[in-house]
């Protein structure tokens, strides 16, 4: 039966024992790992019995190992713990079948223990402390030898000083070297005597260089007779030597040599060749021998330990072993999960406490009886109940990490007043075990963690205070919560977090100090040793934790991605990195750290090249000799060009453009278009890079000195260069009139200039330079704003508006604007207004002065030269009025270009038809380019700005649209009202009939009469000199008159609908008569009344043949029409 197999009275039978149940539901017995030495076998068997019969668990010996380290690996869960090369731990065990192991010598293997705890923390075993006794290894001798010496001479052989040969001779109590059988010994070369490091240390420490020898550059212990090392104390008389028997390769042989030499002891170590020889030699020869406790090997010899000076740990760590060896606590281990699986077993193992006497009694019993370990352990348990009974856990006696738990209510309780159903259970997460003293003794209860603390693991004796950066505001919580973003906690064990200052936050959760409060994204810390956040405005990219220091030096204590940067297209100085300047071109300002410019540019905002260099479009390059030479040639070349211009700007004015006039007009159109493109490129509209790059060379047509590197030629200031530019216009006037005056001198008589032509030349030159003149005059007024509040000139950003230089430029620009721009435009406007009167009165001199206004354009739109002048200043004015608003610039420029495009398409003013098409096409291309370059919003601020502008612009367009609709309604209403009231012809308002029909007839009559007197050749000559556009209009008029006045003579050339015929056909259709025929007859005769004189006008009858009827075949109808024209 089950009771028959029990060792202890009242033990739990096998049928009532239980298995462990793991977290994943597996059931298994308690695994016992046994170390392979006698004391471990006996104590493991004793624990085996207690766990089964008193705790009630099934126990299985799951493995054995030859050393303490194998127990370490087995309880960790490694698969091959006995493999010294690979214990089979892999990447980390996930569980173990080995749960308990005892009799471990932890102190000898601290490195292995620490490595397991570090590498496999999840499954590393738990050390439950000592077993109540200490193990030690030392030098022993038989108790009988000690007793003989004491009885004979009173000598104390168990004390090291009694062996000092200077005062004592103890060799008579021991067998000498000659008494040992050398066949039981290992030769010296097979022992630690040949370990170079060990022997060299011995020689250096003791100074006994005679006790060692050098063989093949290796130090080893000197060997006498092949088996013996002799200490200095008996080296001269080996009969005085006392043998010390050890095993292995020479256990503790180096320590024995040091003790023998330092303490002048005649101890000669020998090494047994095997275990049997090691066991037999101390029994055959009176000697000293190596032994350790607890161990039964020499227990029957009743060994006595040699006493040496107390253990000196520091000396032993240095290799000095002249003091006694260290006693080693014998430890007990359990697996990482046994506390949760079987806390009673853990309590039993922890409470197990036995002294060395009891352990030796167990081993002596086994030696005497020869019984197995289980039988000996059972016999000891049956006779030593008073020793092990306190080890057994009381169901209500809870140890640390546990608390009282009532199974009936499934809850932890705080006392033992009702003991029924009380057990101990590991405290759950969020609770900790607290000691409780009552009338029954000491136990533990589980208490909830207080706010500011938590316990995640359970089975704890204390709650962990929340770390800095964490908080917990509730009782009984398993974990602390990290401080939310924008808060921190710099103290442990707190129930709440502290808020960061206003406008600051933390990078994430769990901040543990106020230093982690940083400026939020979009702001920057202005202090080096404090915290003062300021908003980052336009031109700065400020991530979280931005600082001014990082913006200056490019380093951050947080991370590189938290370094504030200057945005592309902006610039700031190093000494004031938050004062942001806006660059006119992004490629000049790559952004990044403060003070960064592209291509070697200098000065805020990356606007100038260093002296001796010029901007090439992408970088500053050195000035070359060709550029310098060019500027030496310009002062000579320009006056010459101005003088020569007199001979090319005074062509004969004709209706049809000659080849010379066509070429001149083409050049003028080219300059106009190029200047228009250059003006557009100078706006702040974000044009495509290829357009900006292509437009750079065109700036020369706007008299931009820097476009041809004027700085390489002169070191003038910006104001000086500007003054030089605008002074060119009055110098032009003076030089031209100087040339005129010089042409009156005798040497130049044949080149004599005419006054009117000189005026015309001056007008031509001013007309071609009117765009640059307008731009230069308005240039000082083009100030754009920087984010820091300063304002710079658009084309000279390094000059700030309001400075002394700028004020001087304003004065010069204003004078140029008033005297030349507005003055020239006013003179041209007046001239265009009076031009018809001058010609009618024969004032050809005045007309010739302003030929430059008319000779390129058709004579019926002679005034278009003034309109073309207006385009450039109007475009430039859009830039002046909206320098900071590229959207407004785009809208204004687009509107202006569209208006001019409509006018061009309607009038086609150029004499040369091809130029009209080119002008219209290029204007359309520029308008489309403007649409391509129109700025698109990239930020929320730009989107809001675009919406605001679009709303305003849409409102203006809607007002214009409403005005148009209202005008239409008013015109229709007025027309109907006039018609109903009989106050006039309402069609005049709708048809724009300014000239009455009577006036047209008055003008047509004399023209027709004049044409009748012209010969065909003479008329042909006049027609050939007419402008193509005039010929086209003449042809249209001829066709119209043929249809309307004489439809019966209109041929295919004049095909169309005649209003007169249309009216007649309608009348005939409404009153059919016998004249109708399905076949058309010859034209009806014209009654004389149809050509009767109009009231108040001469009659056409004078031009017709006599008689009352006109023969259609005899009338030259085209001649009559030409007369009418």
Give keywords.
1125 residues; elongated; alpha+beta; seven-stranded mixed sheet; 13% strand; three-stranded antiparallel sheet; disordered C terminus
Broad shape: elongated
| Mean residue pLDDT | 81
Could you tell me the strand content as a percent range? 5-15%
Radius of gyration, whole Å: 60 Å
Number-wise, the strands total: 36
Structural class: alpha+beta
First-residue to last-residue Cα separation: 148 Å
User: Poorly predicted ranges (pLDDT <50, ≥5 residues)?
Assistant: 989-994, 1052-1125
**Biggest sheet architecture:** 7 strands, mixed
Tally of DSSP helical segments: 34
Helix content: 25-40%
Task: Explain how this protein is built.
This protein has 1125 residues and is an alpha+beta fold. The chain is built from 34 helices and 36 strands. The strands form 15 sheets. Strands 5, 6, 9, 10, 11, 12 and 13 form a seven-stranded mixed sheet that branches. Strands 15-14-16 form a three-stranded antiparallel sheet, with no helix packed on it. A two-stranded antiparallel sheet has the order 1-2. Helix 6 links the parallel strand 9 and strand 10. Helix 11 crosses helix 12 and helix 26 packs antiparallel against helix 27. It is elongated, with a radius of gyration of 60 Å. The C terminus is likely disordered.
